[in-house]
Amino acid sequence: MTHALHGHGLQRRHLAGAALLLLAGCGGGNTEKDEDAVAPSLVITSDVPGDATGPFTVRFTFSAAVSNFAANRILLTNGALGGAALVKLSDTVYTLQVTPTANRQDVLTVEVPAGAFRDAGGTASSLVAYRFSQRIDTVVATNEPVLTITNSTAANIATGPVTFTFDFSVDVGDSFAAGDIEPDAGTLGSFTKVSATRYTVVLTLPAATSGLMTLTVRAGAFQSATGVPSQQTYTTAILFAIPV
């Protein structure tokens, strides 16, 4: 459900699981370069509908092509940029992995300040700042197993089958299985238990396709050998461009 509050240049929209705040400067004058110019607008969303318990992906969708949007123009509170850089999916869509501050129950904010981007025609983003809020819960229970996910792609772009490695901080016994791994594209193949703390799986993506693939391991999917379950949801993302 979307609610709009109008008054003195302020709009507030509440989205499911998060909030998008558009802050517009007050005043009676025109804030655009000229009366007919249309500044690009921005919608910020995440791939986590509820509380984020680990790294998650933020998506920036612009109303027109932008040419100078970069990670250093994004401000974060209660979080940090993830391992991957800002990913350009198209002229109007970018994604970024964000890591919430550890051991905290709070709100992570992502802000793109006023004037932080321009469209292809050189129109500034006027005096509008865009802010997105995501609830986070990264409090770790005592002896909770922690997962680190890596992959075999070069430069984080897959052109063929990808091997994902799952490294656990403690012995998880046989509690982790292929069914606990959820890719949003492709097919899981060989699943191997390398040791009590390491597993691997091979993901094959469809031929003649490209895009962004996100892989998720949800909270509670595994537990330590002593019976302490995971409380965090883990996600990782890669770009892929599979030839025919």
Number of domains: 2
Helical content (DSSP H or I, runs of 4+): under 10%
Which stretches are low in confidence, meaning pLDDT under 50 for 5 or more residues running?
Answer: 1-35
Any idea what the shape is? flat
Number of strands: 18
Strand content: 35-45%
What is the top-level CATH class of the largest domain?
Answer: Mainly Beta
Features:
disordered N terminus, 2 domains, Immunoglobulin-like, 5-stranded antiparallel sheet, 0% helix, single chain, mainly beta, 244 residues
Detailed description of the structure:
The protein has 244 residues and is an all-beta fold. It has two domains: 10-137, Immunoglobulin-like (Sandwich); 147-242, Immunoglobulin-like (Sandwich), CATH 2.60.40.10. It is 0% helix and 45% strand. It is built from no helices and 18 strands. The chain has a five-stranded antiparallel sheet with strand order 1-2-10-9-5, with no helix packed on it. Strands 3, 4, 6, 7 and 8 form a five-stranded antiparallel sheet that branches. It has a four-stranded antiparallel sheet with strand order 11-13-16-15, with no helix packed on it. Strand 7 and strand 8 form a beta hairpin. It is flat, with a radius of gyration of 20 Å. It starts with 9 loop residues before the first strand and ends with a strand. Residues 36-126 form the Bacterial Ig-like domain. This is Bacterial Ig-like domain-containing protein. It holds the Pfam family Big_12. It comes from Pseudaquabacterium pictum.
